[in-house]
Write a structure and sequence with these properties.
This protein has helices at about 5-15, 35-45, 90-95, 135-150, 185-195; strands at about 20-25, 25-30, 30, 55-60, 65, 70-75, 80-85, 100-105, 105-110, 115, 125-130, 155-165, 170-180, 205-210. By secondary structure, it is α+β, with helices and mostly antiparallel strands.
Length: about 210
């Protein structure tokens, strides 16, 4: 079966339109560990102001090696920048290739794009999930469970460390989340839909436990 037919089949089983990861190697930096807002601002300048309210876009946190000074060192040969997008917007996102992004005065050079089909995984992790109004672990878990139930997803939920992100000067509280014992349709629904808010700023974006392909 071709990738396209596999994607169509798994999308039908998940009940949500499929998304894809558009990934780029990035050279430059280092950048702050807490870079979600700055990265989204840079993408807005590159892709157009209308992505402010785009429901078709989620943005992974940049990947790299954390440093003790609160910075993140990027690895030029890795696909450090990943955008999760609806299929119809892939062409728009690949236009970032061979361009630059400016993260708060740090210029990053963007390489050639690669497009990845999302695959089911038994366990998924998000570095941070934020749900407005839920700042403590157990109430947050209950709110997260309600979101999973709304998506008809059965999973064992593991709440990890408390994390924060800064958005326009505000400090937003969230938690690392790992979902275990997912079936294939549920795993895809989580990856396609995400959980919580601020997904365009690196929150609530799930990937297979153990890393990207």
């Amino acid at each position: 079966m071709t990738d396209a037919r596999q994607t169509e089949s798994t999308s039908e089983r998940s009940g949500i339109a499929p998304r894809f990861d558009v990934a780029f190697p990035v050279a430059g930096g280092p950048v702050p560990l807490d870079h979600g807002y700055a990265l989204f601002s840079a993408l807005t300048r590159a892709l157009g102001d209308e992505v402010h309210g785009a429901t078709w876009l989620a943005v992974h946190p940049l990947s790299g090696a954390p440093r003790s000074n609160g910075m993140l060192a990027l690895r030029p040969r890795n696909c450090a920048l990943r955008l999760r997008v609806d299929g119809e917007h892939i062409g728009r996102c690949v236009s970032l290739a061979a361009g630059t992004l400016n993260l708060g005065g740090t210029e990053l050079l963007v390489g050639t794009s690669r497009v990845f089909t999302l695959r089911p995984a038994r366990a998924l992790v998000a570095r941070i999930v934020t749900i407005k109004g839920f700042l403590e672990a157990e109430p947050f878990r209950e709110a997260l469970r309600r979101q999973l139930d709304a998506l008809s997803i059965g999973s064992r939920v593991e709440i990890g460390r408390r994390r924060t992100v800064r958005v326009s000067g505000d400090v937003i509280v969230g938690f690392q989340v790992t979902l275990h014992d997912l079936d294939d349709p549920g795993s895809l629904r989580v990856q396609y839909a995400g959980l919580g808010g601020r997904q365009r700023m690196g929150c609530g974006v799930f990937t297979p436990l153990g890393g990207h392909p």
